[in-house]
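User: Continuing from earlier, I have the next pair ready.

Assistant: Great, send them over.

User: Here they are, in order.

Assistant: Folding the first of the pair now:
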Amino acid sequence: MGVKLHTDDRQFYVSPQNKGAYSSDRFARLQHSYNQHSMFSWDAIRELAEFMYPLKGCRFVKRGLNLDSEFYHVSESPDGRSLKQIFDEIEQPGSWIALYNIEKHPDYAKLLNSIVGPLSDLFKDQEGDFFNVGGFMFISAPPAYTPYHMDRENNFWLQLKGQKRLGLFERSDRTILSETQIEDFIVNRSLDSIALTDEIAAKAEYFDVKAGEGVYFPSTTPHMTETTSGWEKPGDGVSVSLGVPFYTQQTRYIAQLCQYNKVARRLHLPLSKLDTPRGKESIKAALGRYVALTKKNYRHYNPPPGSY
């Protein structure tokens, strides 16, 4: 593939800090040992970035983002710097680069699946089988921010180097996130109506994580991150976080209900609540899947991954 990366034969783990209270419906603190894995060493990360760059897998933002900024990123550095320059200067305040879909590298695809696989017993009863495991790496120097947004997948977020603060919000709180906003995001990929207000910001639950720690949060959990100051020192001033998102039968079921609801609203048909247990609305979910596939085949619509 053009880049050779060393694998690691040691045993590594990810586990909820409070395993007995873990639920796939809500966020939870994690502990892990993947910060010691050779494929997450600084040299390996730079090699991975070189592999991802021609695949448009390196993402850049303009400096000066805040938590309430639009989360807009591009595949070329806005200030014209090369990838090498960016990594050479990565400890400059406010630096930010992300590596998207690192599962495109076969070695990392194998590693990411090995992270989620042993955890499947934790969520299998609630979520069913998992699939489409991905990987997103965020590299930043304080002060740096990833603005308020949400994702379609469940996520095991692992801190590999440095420190970071995550602000998470209850996805079931309809004063934060309405069902129509969820539907617009799932069906149309739209975050246009998702905005951080003072009222919403006051409801955040914050998690300060350092290397060897992490957080699990489920699909459509609104969240934001901040690379905080005070911990960095020369030669060790960069935060590296790994998001390991994955879909399940439950996330697919919710996506299908969203597809159904978008049509049902226009036709004034009964809607389905998105917190309905999987299987209770199987007919509506099947109709939602049919809608997605029909649009895909005849309207050149590309349904979000994992929704059909």
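And the other member of the pair:
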Amino acid sequence: MKWKKLGKVYEPNGSSDWCHTHAMVPIAEHLYDDIYKIYFSPRDVDNRCHVAWLIIDLNNPQQILEQAKKPILSPGKLGTFDDSGAMANSIINIGDKKYLYYQGVNLGVTVPFKNSIGLAISSDGGETFQKFSEGPLLDRTYAEPHFCATPMILKEDGVYKMWYLSCIRWEPSDNKPKHYYHIKYAESNDGIDWDRKGIVAIDFKNDDEYAIAVPRVIKEDGVYKMWYSYRGNRYRIGYAESENGINWIRKDHLAGITVSDSGWDNDMIEYPFIFDHKGLRYMLYNGNGYGKTGFGLAVLT
């Protein structure tokens, strides 16, 4: 694989209180012709994530055709799993509804945060979303005692399949506790109640790695293909393949995209989203600062 970068698409300019900085974890949804709706998660003046959208034409992606004037998803009530932020991760159509799976952020005391996985549902084609519940779909359990986040969902043969971030431990460090998380796999019959068996899909490849997140999975010619973010010192985009979606072989050297020599993505590159359009494969991705410098677009050559 070799990706050609098409440039930065969007970065908040700080003029909005709720869409103040960052444009994290972009997700593409086809509307019509060459027009796409991009969901993303900006941070407000209090550093809390919301969920927003904008519309672009792939022929000129730097020109924003329309942009949300208010968030479609915001932090929850005080004390709930998402009271410190809501970040979109995966959207699928189920019947005439859209299911938006998102990461809820809850700040901690002994550790900086505890994330969980929530669900919001749209019955009007994505104009508005209502949270399925004030509690998370997936949270810490006796088998996974720390936190989970960044879900990716596919439906195949009546089974909902999820790949998600699972934190396995925190360790003390000089400045603040350091988290270790990798990618696990779960299944569901309805997209709401999930069976987690602790199956590890993507694990650390060496002792330097400590964070693997935001899996993106497609199935092509009978092969499951996953792009994801991994890091030791700085985030990079990785790639893996699987015959069954459960047991994966990492092939990070085939990812075909890395940091630029200069500019908005010269320090880190992460949070890819893969989609196909008119015979071409595209990738949305974030750059420096976990999306602080916005998101860009690349095309597979």
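Worth noting for the second one:
Helices lie at 288-291. The chain has one helix and 20 strands.
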